[in-house]
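Weekly sync, protein design subgroup
Attendees: M.S., D.O., the rotation student, P.L. (late)

Item 1: inverse folding check
M.S. brought a backbone from last month's batch and wanted to see whether the design step gives back something sensible before we order anything. D.O. pointed out we never logged the input encoding, so this time it goes straight into the notes. Structure tokens as presented (350 positions):
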């Protein structure tokens, strides 16, 4: 069965609707609740449909351990332990209620990624309208089932997952009770190279899994996200910051407000340009149809003379005989005088 749309907080999401834009705040609050509030306000001004948080504590996502397994090697966070990184990046749970309230007052949808069952319980207390499962948690099928048991819409991010793992996560969500389900094509690099995104995967995902499909984009800039819309993406998620130079864990690969505003605007333009399959003349073309080519008399012709390649040519505008009839009129005799600059008509010919 194909699920062609989902609804989050009253908003219908489907390929026949303008793309749903999610501004991912992630760690870009940088430990300041006012910054988090400002991010929500900036996302609203920029035209995003939703803002998304991440709900975890360092001790619910990992343990405080300095062993090699728990230390990051290479990349943006090279040398840091997981616990140290998540301690800096996490959003305190006591911020959630006031931020949810703030977003609702502003009229922008807010939801979150839970990283354990306690986070789901917290978000349920806040009546979150949806859940997003992060790529790294896609293999945590018990977590997916628990979130799905709430009956809320869910979005699954698929970074690092193969087709089999994606199907397992979908099955877990369905078995848990989720009816409104979407998946996001994703590359879990920070930032991710554009060449790794393989956007042709999106229509394959739509056909293979039969779900609303979108993009979680970790590339720099908006090109990949805009292009994904032509491939069928109905949801675009991008990390969002007030200042890319704030030196927070996620700031450097996030969009600033001006970039997010462009993404919201250009995504809608890209979607509108897709339209539908049509070979009909468009309304904007109607007035220009007269400037197509047609057969015109380019030298005065007397009655009884023949049409030749010298006295009739295919030129603009389009009030004469169609150029495809050029060979058929060659050599035919004209019935009356025809002045230069007149369109040729079949009524002019014997």
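Designed sequence read out in the meeting:
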């Amino acid at each position: 069965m194909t699920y062609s749309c989902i609804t989050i907080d009253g908003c219908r999401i489907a390929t026949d609707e303008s793309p749903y834009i999610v501004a991912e705040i992630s760690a870009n609050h940088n430990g300041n609740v006012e910054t988090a509030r400002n991010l929500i306000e900036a996302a609203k001004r920029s035209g995003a449909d939703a803002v998304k948080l991440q709900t975890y504590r360092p001790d619910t996502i990992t343990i405080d351990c300095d062993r090699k397994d728990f230390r990051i090697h290479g990349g943006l966070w090279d040398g840091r332990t997981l616990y140290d990184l998540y301690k800096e990046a996490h959003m305190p749970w006591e911020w959630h209620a006031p931020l949810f309230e703030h977003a609702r007052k502003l009229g922008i949808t807010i939801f979150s990624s839970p990283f354990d069952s306690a986070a789901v319980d917290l978000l349920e207390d806040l009546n979150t309208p949806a859940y997003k499962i992060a790529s790294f948690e896609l293999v945590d099928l018990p977590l997916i089932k628990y979130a799905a048991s709430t009956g809320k819409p869910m979005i699954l991010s698929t970074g690092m997952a193969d087709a089999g793992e994606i199907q397992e996560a979908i099955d877990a969500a369905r078995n848990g009770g989720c009816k409104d389900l979407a998946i996001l094509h994703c590359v879990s690099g920070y930032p991710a190279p554009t060449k790794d995104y393989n956007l042709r995967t999106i229509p394959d995902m739509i056909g293979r899994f039969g779900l609303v499909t979108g993009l979680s984009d970790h590339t720099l800039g908006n090109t990949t996200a805009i292009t994904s819309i032509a491939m069928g993406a109905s949801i675009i998620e991008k990390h969002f910051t007030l200042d890319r130079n704030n030196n927070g864990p996620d700031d450097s690969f996030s969009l600033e407000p001006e970039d997010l505003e462009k993404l919201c605007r250009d995504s809608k333009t890209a979607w509108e340009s897709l339209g539908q399959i049509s070979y009909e003349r468009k309304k904007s073309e109607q007035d220009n149809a007269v400037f197509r080519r047609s057969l015109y008399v380019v030298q005065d012709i007397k009655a009884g003379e023949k049409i030749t390649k010298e006295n009739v040519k295919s030129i603009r505008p389009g009030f004469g005989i169609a150029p495809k009839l050029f060979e058929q009129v060659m050599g035919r005799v004209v019935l009356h005088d025809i002045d230069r600059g007149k369109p040729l008509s079949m009524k002019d010919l014997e």
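Discussion: The first strand starts at residue 5 and ends at 8. The domain at 283-348 is CATH 3.90.1210.10 (Type Iii Antifreeze Protein Isoform Hplc 12).
Action: P.L. to compare against the previous round before Friday.
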